[in-house]
Specification:
By secondary structure, the chain is α+β, with helices and mostly antiparallel strands. It contains 15 helices and 17 strands.
Length: 465
Amino acid sequence: MPRVHANRSDALGEHDAVGLTEALARGELTPVEAVEAAIARIDAVNPALNAMAMRTYDTALRIAHGPRPGFFSGVPTVVKDNVDVAGVPTQHGTDSYVARVPRHNGDLARLLFETGLISLGKSQLSEYGFSGAAEHARLGPVRCPWDTDRVAGASSAGSGALVAAGAVPLAHGNDGGGSIRIPASVNGLVGLKPTRGRIAQDAYYSAIPVQIVAQGVLTRSVRDTAAFYREAERVRPAAGLPPVGDVTRPGRRRLRIGMLTGALGRSASPEVTELTHKTAGLLEELGHHVEECGPPVPPTFADDFVLYWSELATTLVHLGRVRGKTWDVAKLDNLTRGLADHGARNLTRVPAAIARLRQVPALAEEFLAPYDVLLTPTVAHETPRVGHLDPTQPFDTVLTRLMDWVAFTPAANVSGQPAISLPLWTTASGLPQGMMFNARWGREATLLELAFELEQACPWGSVQA
């Protein structure tokens, strides 16, 4: 099982993002030294991982030489290649067009940079973020640092692989069907998809009929995730949501937790089911109450989600011409084209599907009313090998395999509720396997307090260990 880790004795050491900010504040290293070390680490691991979409090293070094406000001042990161960063093309992981170069940072990039983070470039994703594995027909797959024969999840695959490999301590991801939580599970990381509206994002994600996409980060520690949401809230408080606040330790309140091991008509594998019950046992030992429950979404959800997903692809293809003369639909992969075709064939069914999906937030809040948290696996089975979700395969094959694996994550995207994946266990093959916890709207603090408690009770390892 080939593993990849930066494993360098340099200025970054073994610091997580909070540890690095503390070292920078003490003057143990400078932002320039931190950025230079991260550049060297990225260049060391990327040939094996294929995680970078483009590099902006010169810009990062220029920024590092100047004063930079924000808690994370001087901390190097990467930004996923589906948000706008000034002067850098937004390619969305596709060969279907030549991307424009935005003149200004989008809302998400502005928020990231106002916290003090310094971007070294853009990370690779699956085409338009549609797949749970980033396997580009021309560029090849993004590989998992725990086992380079496996995928790194998606769509935030590049960010997840680089954080897990120790190249950067924290990286941007976004999540429209599990794309923060899936790479968190695959790469042994913490991945919190926040409540809808918690984090600023570029306008085109807010314009879609059901706002399933949420922005966030992938980290190696709970305190890094908690610190990011605290600092993001200081930069841009979320109107209408309870504040996350400064969560730094486990909560004292014992929780009532629902548990399920099946979703969208699919069951988790025997091994993953066993690990979920093991998690429930740990929670009981810690004094929480866990009980099995039914699914939080109606039986129509799976078909409605795929149809809505397909409608987004149909719209993308229909509007492709606005990208200019370089647009070439033939360069889309089979998954994107298949989704677009499915949406076009079922166009008359879309309004009813959207109407039902818009009812999910209220249904999910009602479902969680008796509970503080819902426990499920993050993904239904062990991380697939490279090629299993290759989007050059027939559409029906890829879609079936994809839904079988990621069945647990899409519900929180439609409900808008927060959900966190924690790398509590490894499989018999030695691969990380995340467990997911969902909470009601605005209850990120509950998830973070529970995450701190579980991190203390069941510390997770790293690729290097």
